[in-house]
Amino acid sequence: MNAEIARQLNHRTIRALTAQPLSQEIIDTLVNVARHTATSQFQQAFSIISITDPELKAAIRKITKQSYVGATGHLFIFVADEYRNATIGQEMGNAHHSLGNTDRTIAAFSDAILAVQNTVNAAESMGLGTVILGSILNDAAQLIELLQLPKLTFPVLGLEVGYPDQEPQLKPRLPENFMHFQNTYQLPEPIVPQLKDYDEIVHNYYDLRETNQRVDTFTNQIYQRLNNVPEKRHELLQTLRQQGFLNEAN
Amino acid sequence: MNAEIARQLNHRTIRALTAQPLSQEIIDTLVNVARHTATSQFQQAFSIISITDPELKAAIRKITKQSYVGATGHLFIFVADEYRNATIGQEMGNAHHSLGNTDRTIAAFSDAILAVQNTVNAAESMGLGTVILGSILNDAAQLIELLQLPKLTFPVLGLEVGYPDQEPQLKPRLPENFMHFQNTYQLPEPIVPQLKDYDEIVHNYYDLRETNQRVDTFTNQIYQRLNNVPEKRHELLQTLRQQGFLNEAN
Questions:
Q1: In this structure, are A42 and A135 located in the same domain?
Q2: Do A98 and B218 touch (CB under 8 A)?
Q3: Which chain B residues touch A134 with a CB distance below 8 Å?
């Protein structure tokens, strides 16, 4: 096993970062890696926004409800972006396009999300810690306003990168037989009794970890969150549509 | 710059793979890396299907219309999967859930797509070549039937991995100032005249590359594809809904 794979198998989300900022050289390198990620049909349908303004950081922190967001480290927002390509089309004389349809929506989201993980891998190769922030979608409409995102763009994920100030335990993942199948989808069912050993492992993980200890299992965590929708997240479909995505009109 | 980042900056999609199959050990390692990818709220809302059946490979190749798909190398399909978590809920006595809403749809897609890129990075660290296959969505409904995907699952991306049988040139990416902004979205406009140098670089790339030479620029490629929707891709929104995603009912 090579060093990169050893590190990938040991991936932990790092929420506590030291006060040491990333150098401009490191930020440039991370963005450069992101740029070189595979992209669907060479559309390069994503952009990155670096958040450096303290007031903006505070506003995003408030949206995420996570105290570490924008506190230390460097905060990137990865944006699905068909606006750039629509603008190219318009300037070249064709304002009619299908860039907001579901197909392109998925492609733009894919471009952005693949770039997030590529950036994570680059950061970790330099000994940096990362936390991917789905929590920016707690209020997507407000974030769109804050970042002045035009139509045909959408903030997909945040990514905070910095120097680790914690060494959390490795969080145990679902055993392979529950998530990797041959040729057809074949979940072992009933699944809950078969997850007993894994539940025990997750229970031990929560019980023994150094911070935020609690009593929980995997199945219980899934059960508790079956209907968990933070209020504004009900508006996500509407916000996506307002940005011009998932639009089959053209 | 470390070796991993050097390799990431030199990423090329590898469509031509030798006949040498991946060992079971390598396949297991790749899946193990995918399992350890960051996951939204520890939901682990994705699964992987390895395609080993020759007839199934041929059927997927036909959907993608790409002769190299399933020809050599190992073919993975990454699946957004909220079915597993819905099943856990149902077995524990709660059939009512929000796992198909837009918020969870985005989260499940993110989990699957982040895992794809993590797998790509692992494969490339072993000297393997990869091609990410958005083309599986040319006929999502048929693929769902072939893979026997239940409701609340959706095939997001394919990934073919194997031993490289080509060394393509590096495809030049958009300069950073067109895709990385500070604090707010600020695309330099009008963009087409400012892309003149990049268009020239892309033109040279297509002109000089060893295979599939053509005369093209970036802006022209975007322009030509503004309204390019393969027929069945018009049905993607409907197929997503039929699978129970983007559903705000609960």
A1: yes
A2: no
A3: 40-41, 106-107, 110
